[in-house]
Amino acid sequence: MVGTKKRKDFFEDFGSELFDNLEEMIEALLEEMGESVPFVYGFSIIHCPGEDPELREFGNVPEYSQNEENFFTPETKEPLIDIFENEDMVHVLAEFPETEKENLLLHATSQHLEIKVLGLSEYSEDVELPVLVDPKSAKASYKNGVLEITFRRCPEESPVAIEIN
Q1: Which domain holds residue 96?
Q2: Given the DSSP bridges, would you call strands 41-46 and 54-59 parallel, antiparallel or unpaired?
Q3: What residues form DSSP beta bridges with 82?
Q4: How many CB atoms lie within 10 A of CB 51?
Q5: Other CB atoms closer than 10 Å to residue 55's CB: what's the count?
Q6: Distance of CA 87 to the CA centre of its chain
Q7: What is the C-alpha to C-alpha distance for residues 98 and 68, in angstroms, rounded to an integer?
Q8: pLDDT in tens, 141-159
């Protein structure tokens, strides 16, 4: 065709100037953030019939307010702890994303589980178990920041008749 003008391809030089300094910008941001720590944030919603829904946040990202200059403060949220039970077992799940297994201490009674985290950000929680358990049956595992403890349920204590002499 005579007299047709070749159009310049939009992508031909797209980003040549835009991405020149990208790597430098990323390195500067990472340096500004300091030691790299994975950011974890989540929430669960518990809604029981007849009650208002309960929103529980968890993770190591602090709440953010537009007025705050520094988003990354040293505060951490409390870990999410969930308890599940079936006919034979009670399962306790807790998340500790920045904790080493060696820094976790667990103590159990038939009605309570105490979880302690030692180290820079110490934490302690006394978890009331929904039913009686056998603390000697406890099995715990820790993988990818999630602590799982399993107990065998104890039979419910029933009243005992006492004879009067």
Answers
A1: 22-63+78-153
A2: antiparallel
A3: 93
A4: 8
A5: 10
A6: 27
A7: 24
A8: 999 889 999 999 987 766 6
Terminal C-alpha separation, the chain:
120
45 token code pair: 């919603």
Three-state SS for 15?
coil
How many independent structural domains does the chain possess?
Answer: 1
Does residue 102 lie within any of the structural domains? yes
71: its two tokens: 């988003």
Q: Nearest-CA neighbor of 125 among 102, 161, 156, 95? A: 95
Against a cut of 0.70, is the pTM above it? no
- Identify whether 44 is part of a domain: yes
Q: Quote the CA–CA distance of 29 and 96 in Å, as a whole number.
A: 26
Nearest to 76 by CA among 123, 143, 146: 123
Alpha-carbon 38 to chain mean position: 12
For residue 59, the tally of other CB atoms under 10 A from its CB is 19
